[in-house]
Write a structure and sequence with these properties.
InterPro entries: HD/PDEase_dom (IPR003607), HD_domain (IPR006674), MJ1020-like (IPR039967). GO terms for molecular function: hydrolase activity. It holds the Pfam family HD. This is Metal dependent phosphohydrolase. By secondary structure, the chain is of the alpha+beta class. The chain folds into 2 domains: 162 residues, Hypothetical protein af1432 (Orthogonal Bundle), CATH 1.10.3210; 83 residues, no CATH class. Helices cover 56% and strands 9% of the residues. It has a 4-stranded mixed β-sheet with strand order 1-2-3-4. The relative contact order is 0.12.
Length: 253
């Protein structure tokens, strides 16, 4: 969680508020009860929230370094720290709606997050700016699901980061506990996901697999997130089978 550890200033204070907020922690706990215990999905709780927040911030920083300006900076005259806060909060809260139901969980997450985010932001920003940033965060939360285009850079970072949390035991595809199918095999095949600054494209995502079945996981989970993120032109994905090839090969999404 190197990016979360690097946070400072207002971003760090807001992260600490999220970490210690009783309502947020309860919603994340209930999200796991609903998603994991009742529906057979993998973690959608606090660990997932931290991983997605960390990876989204990393993606945002690389894009900014490569002169892809965050939307709030470009269109609302905000600072990079403002965009970082939008990305942090949106990523951390994007899955709290699972506590209500997996179906339409992105919508549930948005309305559950509204009061939480508004209360936190008003401590650090003017009322007008707090409302501006609130709408950006709610957009990012709502548009993290496949089928809904991410309109801002910050939202796109969150959508892609959500897809990167797919190592074995953390698959976004539910595993059938009583069968041996492509979903189960693929979900258990992703050993490691690394986000790097690329050469031709700003973001390079490397995935190490234990077997080729993991390609299905990359295409169906990460690929779909990238395709709806608005950031597809800035991202390349490479994979290799750990014990079969020393070379990463680009994956067509």
């Amino acid at each position: 969680m190197e990016e979360l550890k690097k946070l400072n200033g207002v971003a760090k204070e807001i992260f600490n508020e999220l970490e210690n907020n009783v309502k947020v922690n309860t919603l994340l706990k209930m999200s796991n009860i609903m998603a994991v215990k009742r529906l057979g999905y993998n973690d959608h709780g606090k660990t997932h929230a931290r991983i997605v927040a960390n990876n989204a911030i990393k993606i945002l920083k690389i894009l900014n370094k490569r002169n892809i300006v965050p939307s709030y900076v470009k269109e609302c005259k905000g600072s990079f720290e403002d965009s970082l806060v939008i990305t942090l909060v949106g990523a951390y809260l994007h899955d709290i709606g699972n506590s209500v139901h997996r179906k339409e969980h992105h919508l549930h997450s948005a309305y559950l997050a509204k009061d939480i985010v508004e209360e936190i932001l008003k401590k650090y920003y003017s009322e007008e700016k707090a409302y501006q940033m609130l709408t950006e965060i709610l957009h990012a939360i709502y548009s993290h699901s496949e089928g809904i285009p991410s309109i801002t850079v910050e939202a796109g970072c969150i959508a892609v980061a959500d897809g990167t949390d797919m190592t074995k035991g953390r698959s976004r595809i539910p595993i059938c506990r009583k069968c041996y199918d492509i979903h189960s095999i693929s979900a258990a095949s992703v050993e490691k996901v690394t986000i790097l600054e690329g050469k031709d494209r700003p973001i390079k995502i490397e995935v190490i697999l234990s077997n080729e079945a993991g390609i299905f996981q990359i295409q169906e989970v990460l690929g779909e997130k990238i395709n709806w993120s608005g950031l597809k032109d800035y991202i390349s994905v490479y994979a290799k089978v750990e014990k079969e090839s020393p070379v990463f090969k680009e994956i067509t999404l």
